[in-house]
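Subject — a protein and its fold
Fields — amino acid sequence, structure tokens
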Amino acid sequence: MRLKDISEAAFATLPVFRKACERAEPHDIWKARRFIEEHAAEPLSLGKVAKQVGINATHLSEKFKQVTGFKFVEYVARTRFERARELLGDVDLRISEIAFAVGFQSLSQFNRVFKKFSGKSPTEYRSSRQTRRKHD
């Protein structure tokens, strides 16, 4: 399986986490989140997303946090983390392949973010999933 195929498969199955789904969400924030989710495997910056949405980067940053409850950078990292978490179930994929397929720029960045959000390293997380499956 090619890395591009792995990435596309992961992004297609991501359950979207949204704090703002309980209330009407401003269209520009919806567009920003959608762009992030569709392009998370690519390098993303606040400026790039703001330009895509058509608003000032500072305004997007403030409004994004206010509406979603997440800072822009954290939302991007969480989106990538969720996709990586799904891919870790495939033991045929190396952890480094997964990290780069979901958009992390380095393995150390991936490991740091993964541990922050899950409390485990990607290797520990994968091992715990395999252990649970054996007991089910």
Q: What stands out?
A: The radius of gyration is 16 Å. The first helix runs from residue 3 to 12. The mean pLDDT is 88.
